[in-house]
Write a structure and sequence with these properties.
Elements (H helix, E strand, L loop, with lengths): L11 H20 L12 H4 L2 H5 L1 H14 L45 H5 L22 H5 L6 H12 L11 H11 L4 H9 L3 H7 L15 E4 L3 H7 L2 H9 L3 E4 L18 H10 L1 H7 L5 E3 L3 H9 L7 E2 L1 H6 L30
Parallel strand pairs: 1-2, 1-3, 3-4
Helix pairs in contact: 8-9, 8-11, 10-12
């Protein structure tokens, strides 16, 4: 059984209650002949409780055996043999006093108005550390390229925790995703903000959910196959279901790429020192897949950064297009071009040519 019990580890009384609970639980398990050793072994949270299960004599034997192989007590000290108390060295503890200002711009309504509570949502398991985008696993991809902890979601959460733990905190700031999500945390009780959030929709949502009687034009047969590079804001907040439905109605066989972020990420890829990481992100899944596709395949990329990345790097001659451009190609008098095929003469890219920052 895996449990996550929200103990109050912020106050002395809460830590004392945590100790009482653990001691009573250990006694109960031992009484029924059970084991409170888990698949991950015994660490500091259970070390001092082991005599209740094994008995004092056996635990003393553990100590003598460890002393034979580790006479200087350098191997994992304070865990099983001569363990720390289960309420020692806590990450928080009753004396934890973060610099948790309440006059921040975001209100954090899901965390009691506390930035510290929001930062502490991360418990360090590391589930966020996805090594590839396979299976639809989406995360900021710089970690997937560098494999450096500071680029992982867990590492960034840890940084926020450290900033609040007396190391000096500072303001952290960042369209449509902001209006649908962030602005409601800035002004949680504002009726105008709620109305704005409800009225902020994507093009696909507008056409499928808010335009009664609308029928999309059938795209030309040569453009009926498409790969969709989903925007990061859609992964995080907006969703892509409406886009998929609109494309289906328009007769497009659309495949949603398991590529995650394209790697350009706004201005990240243009900043000095970021070019190699940006290109490596794109080469994880996006660019190899485009190079393997037929020339007539449409590449849908609503994000300007995604279209720029596809244009400037080796995409096998493909160009990214916006959903609106694809639909426009099917309108009477529309451009009617096969949007998946890049022009024969593509403008030279200053960044790819080594003239831009990198």
């Amino acid at each position: 059984m895996h449990t996550r019990i929200p103990f109050d580890l912020y106050t002395a009384d809460g830590v004392a209650a945590y100790r009482r609970f653990m001691e009573r639980a250990a006694d109960l398990v031992a009484e029924f002949g059970g084991s409170f050793s888990g698949e991950h072994g015994d660490g500091q949270s259970r070390g001092e409780l082991l005599p209740r299960m094994f008995g004092e004599d056996l635990v003393a034997a553990f100590g003598r055996l460890k002393a034979l192989f580790d006479p200087l007590n350098r191997m994992n000290p304070g865990k099983v043999v001569a363990p720390y108390g289960l309420d020692e060295n806590l990450r928080l503890g009753g004396d934890w006093a973060p610099r948790d200002r309440r006059d921040v711009h975001f209100r954090f309504p899901h965390d009691g108005g506390s930035f510290a509570e929001a930062a502490n949502r991360c418990v360090g398991v590391g589930r966020c550390r996805q090594l590839t985008p396979e299976g639809g696993a989406v995360m900021c991809p710089s970690y997937q390229v560098t494999r450096e902890e500071e680029h992982s979601t867990r590492g960034r959460a840890r940084l926020l925790f450290e900033m609040l733990d007396g190391h000096g905190d500072s303001a952290i700031r960042d369209g449509s995703a902001v209006l649908r999500s962030d602005v409601a945390e800035l002004f949680p009780g504002d009726r105008d903000v709620r109305r704005l959030r409800e009225q902020t929709v994507t093009l696909a949502e507008l056409l499928t959910e808010h335009s009664p009687g609308y029928t999309p034009p059938r795209v030309p047969e040569r453009s009926a196959r498409a790969l969709a590079q989903v925007h990061c804001h859609q992964h995080a907040v907006l969703g892509w279901d409406a886009d998929g439905e609109l494309l289906r109605r328009a007769g497009v066989d659309a495949e949603r790429l398991e590529a995650g972020c394209c790697g350009l990420a706004g201005n990240f890829g243009f900043e000095r020192g970021h070019l190699a990481v940006s290109e490596a992100c794109a080469e994880q899944a996006l660019l190899p897949r485009l190079r393997a596709e037929a020339p007539e395949t449409v590449v849908l990329a609503d994000g300007f950064s995604c279209r720029t990345q596809i244009h400037e790097l080796d995409s096998g001659g493909h160009e990214g297009v916006h959903l609106a451009e694809l639909l426009a190609s099917a309108l009477p008098g529309g451009p009617g071009s096969a949007y998946g095929v890049a022009p024969d003469a593509r403008p030279a890219s200053p960044r790819a040519a080594g003239q831009g920052p990198g």
